[in-house]
Here is the input.
Amino acid sequence: MRELPFVVSAARVTGQLVAISAVLVTAAQAQPGRTVQDGVFTEAQASHGQALYAKQCASCHGDTAEGLQGPPLVGDAFRGAWRTQPLSALAGKIRNTMPADAQGTLSPAQASDVLSHILKLGGFPAGRTELAPAGAALETISWPPGPAAPATAAAVRAFPPLGNMAQLMRGIFFPNSNLIFTVQTRDPGAPAPKPDAAATSSPTAGFSFVDWGAGIYGGWQLVDNAAIALADAAPLMLTPGIRCENGRLAPVTDALWIKLTEEMIAVARKTYQASQTRSQEAVSDATGDLSDACAACHQAYRETRGRGQNPDPTDPSNKAARCMARSTPAR
Here is the structure.
């Protein structure tokens, strides 16, 4: 068998080198990002942050971040709260929502300096490269794994549900969801509109749940609280023994019911993260997922009706199938 001469053209070599370079770049990009244990800030940056922290943060979080009116910014509990998120989430929290009495006044660079000081207080080492003020670089920095959560020695005390599923929806999910939906048309960061004097002076005048608390909490705090309420109240939908409005036991062990509940929790948490950006557009975008999560559960476990058609609340037949999956027999 005749052997062919081994000839390699310059073009072929060039192509191979380009291919190898691309592989190396891809491999480098695929490597896991650093953790805060790897020296992601400089001593000078932490020093600048110390002065800012003393002026803007210490009155709430303590001189050594041990916590006063505000929560601690060091320790296992603090790390555990942020461990599943990239460092960019904490940087955004500082930049967009701190200090509490002057939210959004820190520049991205100042927020990174404060964060550098917090990391140093937490025992993390400094390095040779400054912590980026924003962008993709922060998204690649994570937290090191922490200790496993301690086992709970005492049994959790359980209380039987007082209300039914419909009351839970109307008392928590309906008002808080609609408060979040209002962000589509009202910027929480804008000054609250003045109430209509003629309307509020009427003996029968009440108040809108959207406006409630606006004189006490900032508009964005109301959105934060609404998202937290949805996320932390959603597990109540899995309470053993809770009943539907028609008196039947809610199908809390159904795989679909559990799946839809978990989706609501995930969407509510995502909405809270969007609210932390203090961006009306980001929360407005998140309302689409929130609406879909509500609709998916309603479609599976609530009566069906055409768009714009509301059932007669006095007609018991409208409640007969509530909380019951379409293919699940009544119990």
About this structure: The mean pLDDT is 81.
